[in-house]
Design a protein that fits this description.
single chain; Aldehyde Oxidoreductase, domain 3; 3 domains; eight-stranded mixed beta sheet; 31 strands
């Protein structure tokens, strides 16, 4: 690998001082003159027709400035808006912000009030009278697929392989991928394993709730201060829902207290904008924790059936997957990545995948770190593990024998370029954790692999050179995991200066070119590419300035390792920056990029667990996460992403779930009852970085943020099976389920 001066080092993050001193500005820190405080009235029913809403008494309450309902939104026809991690129907998005004719889940927003303070707003909500006609509800995916299930949308038909299906249904989409002849493949198999799996709805669990402050100015311009993963995506959604020009909306991204895919779709911003227009004041609107759980987009619950066949020598010959994913109240599209990822780690000459996106009375599902892939891996990796055991093969050796590599074709079509899955498996196999002996009763070791394709999309950067040789970098990617540092480091490496010589700023949508969402593990890759191109633009300009100084042609000036060289003279970057003002206008580099294709991230996890047979409690004794990062720009942040994703995946595996009662109400909508793992529940996650450079990036970067959440549930399930001999096929694998399985 190439040796770098900046890349691979561990400088202190550029925003570190503000974060640790509390000076970083989060959305809830915004306090504008004359600001009103808003609250939202939410449905107590999982499914009901809204017959009427009377806001008269609420509007008359002293201190109330404005009241809005779904009728205040423009009437939108079906139109799709791209969110970066999937797309959304704007009519559905509008109805999700404030219900129109029906409420489709408990917590569905119905009306909103802006008042002098939050207490008055809450009192006003109690005065709003809503006449509901309660309808039957459905919260389990297989029940929602039945012909006699309660129908959420009277106009919904199944998108059947791109064509509209016949009849009204809750099944929004059917996907089908196929390669080879699966029937022939299973006839060739000596061993076949088929199992069914269920996973629960799980929330991203970000600490900061959704909050925004919006000012609809008297000149018609709307300014939004918000915690969002995509300021340009937020701008588009807000503008289109309100039917105003995009140029009339400015989104100012504040620091974000966690997102993980859950802060891409808008929930509050258009509502606050309507209240601001009506009241003539800036409006702050914030969810409480119950609102976040009940009314924002978690990841889908699923039902998955996987069947895989192999020969005696361990060669996979056939795979079949049937996946049904919760869509929630409106079609979600997460079934697509699930189908793409279910067989993505292995060579299958014959395979077929069918996937279904199913509406039901839950909040609309959203992205959560590799959306759809974790549920698919929970199924596939357990079947792979069981096949290895039946064949008497080491689980990693079995995976190595069938691992995808450069030139392998996924079941859904794409052919892999250079990837690092085999190297990642080898690193796991050779790790001291895997080689160590695990002793003691009711203890077991499990392994599993995971894949996330990662995306490119559009990014923009600009950078200005200062006289002291420092560079001000302007970018549009909201920073949710240290991307200020990783992007600044790529600019610095290209210019041959230090990481601390770059001052990065994330700015509003009026101050930088269009930049797609912070998601899809794309930012260090794509916005990094924009920063590299921006640096190259600076180098071209400064080479021309050096040529003027030295009275030679620009093509006679070369640049390497931070030094400009001419026919007889040379100057360092900082030296040339000090005199560049003498040769004309300031040097400002600019770049926009739109890289196509995926960067392909693979991970392999190892877990040791101990199961208490009396209580069913599972304790993680040791956990190792191995992942190909391509090139680790800032190894500390890569390790942090791997550790964070692993911890979240362990939460999926053991504890986290939405618990619904028979009337479609979530009964654990708080951090007290929604059990997330803490530092006290886990050992230190051992993060191992493998570096197989991505050929589509100058420094070999691959996205790293999402892959680590994919293997954990299967890894833990395989370890539990090794410990107690019971195959757990339903996540979370909570103590009551383990206890019941042991007793049966």
């Amino acid at each position: 690998m190439a040796k770098y001066k900046v890349i691979g080092t561990r400088p202190i993050r550029h925003d570190g001082v503000d974060k640790v001193t509390g000076r970083a500005q989060y959305t809830n820190d915004m306090a504008l003159q004359g600001m009103a405080h808003a609250k939202i009235l939410r449905s107590p029913h999982a499914h009901a027709r809204v017959k009427s809403i009377d806001t008269t008494a609420a509007a008359k309450l002293p201190g109330v400035y404005a009241v809005v309902t779904g009728k205040d939104f423009p009437n939108l026809k079906d139109k799709m808006a791209e969110l970066g991690e999937g797309s959304v129907n704007l009519a559905h998005l509008s109805a999700n912000c404030l219900a129109h004719d029906k409420v489709l889940y408990k917590g569905h927003a119905v009306a909103a009030v802006a008042a002098v303070n939050a207490h008055v707003a809450e009192e006003a909500l109690k005065l709003i009278k809503v006449d509901y006609e309660v309808l039957p509800s459905v919260t389990f995916v297989l029940d929602a697929m039945k012909p006699d299930a309660p129908i959420l949308h009277p106009d919904l038909t199944t998108d059947e392989l791109g064509k509209p299906g016949a009849g009204n249904t809750n099944i929004a989409k059917h996907l089908h991928f196929e390669t080879g002849d699966v029937a022939v493949g299973f006839k060739q198999a000596d061993v076949v394993v088929e199992r069914e799996f269920k996973t629960a709805v799980v929330h991203q669990g970000y600490i900061e709730p959704h909050v925004c402050t919006v000012l609809w100015n008297q000149d018609g311009h709307v300014t939004v201060w918000t915690a969002t993963q995509g300021s340009f995506t937020c701008r588009q959604q807000t503008a289109e829902l309100l039917q105003i020009p995009i140029a009339k909306v400015t989104v100012v991204p504040m620091e974000i207290g966690g997102g993980f895919g859950g802060k891409i779709r808008v929930y509050l911003e258009p509502v606050a904008a309507l209240l601001s227009r009506k009241s003539g004041r800036p409006v702050r609107l914030m969810m409480n924790r119950a609102d976040v759980f009940e009314a924002t987009g978690p990841t889908p619950g699923t039902f998955v059936r996987v069947k895989i066949g192999a020969k005696k020598d361990g060669t996979l010959v056939a795979g079949q997957a049937w996946l049904a994913y919760d869509a929630g109240a409106y079609p979600s599209g997460i079934i697509g990545p699930g189908c793409m990822c279910v067989f993505s780690c292995y060579e299958f000459p014959n395979a077929v995948v069918d996937g279904y996106d199913v509406c039901m009375n839950k909040p609309q599902m959203s992205a959560y770190r590799a959306p759809g892939a974790t549920q698919a891996a929970f199924a596939c990796e357990q079947v792979i593990d069981e096949l290895a055991a039946k064949l008497g093969l080491d689980p990693i050796e079995f995976r190595l024998k069938n691992a995808v590599k450069e030139g392998s074709r996924r079941v859904d079509g794409p052919v892999y370029p250079k990837i690092g899955f085999i190297e990642t498996l080898q690193a796991a196999k050779n790790h001291p954790h895997y080689k160590s002996k695990l002793t003691g009763a009711n203890r077991g070791r499990g392994v599993a692999a995971g894949f996330w394709f990662n995306c490119g999309l559009k990014s923009s950067c600009s950078a200005s050179v200062n006289l002291d040789g420092s560079v001000n970098l302007i970018e549009g990617s909201t920073d949710i995991g240290g991307s200020r540092a990783s992007i600044a480091m790529q600019l610095a490496e290209t210019l041959g200066i230090g990481a601390t010589d770059v001052v990065p700023r994330v700015v509003d949508t009026d101050s930088i070119g269009y930049t797609d969402v912070t998601g899809g593990s794309r930012v260090t890759f794509a916005t990094g590419l924009a920063a590299i191109e921006c640096a190259r633009d600076i180098i071209r300009q400064m080479s021309a300035r050096a040529a003027e100084q030295w009275e030679c042609k620009p093509d006679q000036v070369t640049f390497a390792d931070g030094v400009f060289k001419g026919p007889s003279k040379s100057l360092g970057f900082k030296e040339l920056a000090a005199i560049v003002a003498q040769t004309g206008e300031p040097v400002v580099g600019r770049a926009t990029v739109d890289p196509q294709g995926a960067t392909n991230g693979f991970g392999v996890h190892i877990a040791d667990v101990e199961v208490d047979r009396d209580t069913g409690k599972v304790t993680i004794l040791r956990y190792t996460s191995v992942q190909d990062a391509g090139t680790a720009i800032h190894p500390s942040y890569v390790e942090g992403q791997i550790q964070g994703g692993s911890v979240q995946g362990i939460g999926w595996a053991l504890n986290e779930e939405y618990f619904y009662d028979g009337e479609g109400r979530m009964r654990n909508a708080s951090f007290l009852d929604y059990r997330m793992p803490t530092a006290l529940d886990l050992p230190m996650i051992e993060a191992v970085i493998v570096e197989v450079p991505n050929p589509d990036h100058p420094y070999g970067v691959r996205g790293v943020g999402e892959t680590p959440i994919v293997p954990p549930p299967a890894t833990v399930a395989n370890a539990i099976h090794a410990a107690i001999g019971v195959r757990m096929t339903e996540a979370p694998i909570s103590p009551p389920k383990v206890w019941a399985a042991l007793k049966s």
